[in-house]
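Re: weekly structure request thread

Next one in the queue (251 aa):
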Amino acid sequence: MNDYSQAKARFERDTAGHQMTVLHDDGLYRHLKFMNPEHGSFGSFQLITWPYNLVVKAGWTFHFDIDATPDMFDLFRRTSFSGEINPGYWQEKVRAGRDEVEGFEPDLMKAEIASTLAQWMRDDLDNRVTRKAKELGFTQEELKTKPGIRKELARQVRQEWRAANRELREAVHEHFFSEMTEYNIEYESEARRALHDFSFRPEGDTRTWPYYFADWHEWRMTDYSPGFLHCCYAIRHGIDLYIAARKAVAA
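Done, posted below.
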């Protein structure tokens, strides 16, 4: 997911009114603290730099380093617009805290389930139309070249197709999302167990294999963690405040 608006909005709420305190500022050696004096340590964060390194501490701690850039503030400024972040590139520079960069995202898994279910339904309709065409003596070539035939056959099988797929949707809902399910899919281990265990064959179905999620191991079910996104915004915001303060002094 590329929409970080929620993470940004939360960061802005948590850091509203923050002021910068310079604990150390000697060339590339910096130690800056950002906090709202009225809120104490709530939402506070620190940026610490030395040549080729930057550490951000904001409840979470990430250590970034890159051999090619002595001034890490310069790196983060060059690779993002003011107020924005570039987590895809920045996560490559994380030395310490890599285990916290990404985390399981239930909404991604739900989207994958919905996409697979929709594909199953499309495939089932195609199969029913093909079987009906064979019963009535139509060829595959006629189905491909004469849309009217396919449309009519789809109309004829639609009622039974809807009934079968209603049963399939209900089975998926009961297994993953109902109040009676034995799986708490908000947790990655439980979500993976639920995907592994799912198997369903509609009543009267004669296919060789039941419905199951054959390729779920390949699904994308992780996204940048809230902590990592928060720290990315802390870096970008802290740099902006630091640069603005330097300009004000120079003026």
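Helices lie at 5-14, 72-78, 87-90, 106-136, 140-145, 147-176, 188-197, 226-250. Residues 106-136 form the longest helix (31 residues).
Next request, please.
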